[in-house]
Design goal:
- The complex is a heterodimer.
- Chain A is about 0% helix and about 55% strand.
- Chain A starts with a strand and ends with a strand.
- In chain A, strands 2, 5, 6, 10, 11 and 12 form a 6-stranded mixed β-sheet that branches. In chain A, strands 3-9-8-7 form a 4-stranded antiparallel β-sheet, with no helix packed on it. In chain A, strands 1-4 form a two-stranded antiparallel ribbon.
- Chain A is built from no helices and 12 strands.
- By secondary structure, chain B is mostly beta strands.
- Chain B is about 0% helix and about 55% strand.
- Chain B contains no helices and 11 strands.
- In chain B, the strands form 2 sheets. In chain B, strands 2, 4, 5, 6, 9, 10 and 11 form a 7-stranded mixed β-sheet that branches. A 4-stranded antiparallel β-sheet of chain B has the order 1-3-8-7, with no helix packed on it.
- In chain B, about 35% of the residues are buried.
- The chains are: A mainly beta, B mainly beta.
Chain lengths: ~110, ~110
Amino acid sequence: AQKVTQAQTEISVVEKEDVTLDCVYETRDTTYYLFWYKQPPSGELVFLIRRNSFDEQNEISGRYSWNFQKSTSSFNFTITASQVVDSAVYFCALSFLTGNQFYFGTGTSLTVIP
Amino acid sequence: GAVVSQHPSRVICKSGTSVKIECRSLDFQATTMFWYRQFPKKSLMLMATSNEGSKATYEQGVEKDKFLINHASLTLSTLTVTSAHPEDSSFYICGGRGLYGYTFGSGTRLTVV
């Protein structure tokens, strides 16, 4: 079974704090892709990152960073020095090389308090 | 990059009427398109997957006669909510799979009154 778990339903932080959003996935496939999307209040899904299962290098993009650990099946997302504009729902997702399934996690609602 | 255009962004309809939502891939050919439904403060639930020129594959619990999906071309898929009822009010998002990955539309907020 393929599954994506985001255990944190809601998180609130004060502006400028760092925050980590957890994502744990479950699959028996050896080739897969992991994603993070941001959904602001307007509703659209904003693509943040895609990683394939063979690339465990951590990635940093500005204030965003991602920690991919196959040993723990986790793909966590950290926002450094959070800003009010980071307030949104964040989804982790999983897809595969073959087939057409795209699995979203349950999402984490992040509120950054000014 | 790949863009998916979803229209309309918001629609209000009367109970009993049908509503069509369009999803277009603007600069790529989407061999597969997905339709998701999102309840308030909930995750995105996959409703169905459609391949161009063939019938959609619906997820368990989704009424195929209620939610008609057509994927007549590589750039257009439509979702028609037939005989809409207030409980169909929701946020619907489509997505397309092209050669290089997945792209999602901006969503349609449907309100049935």
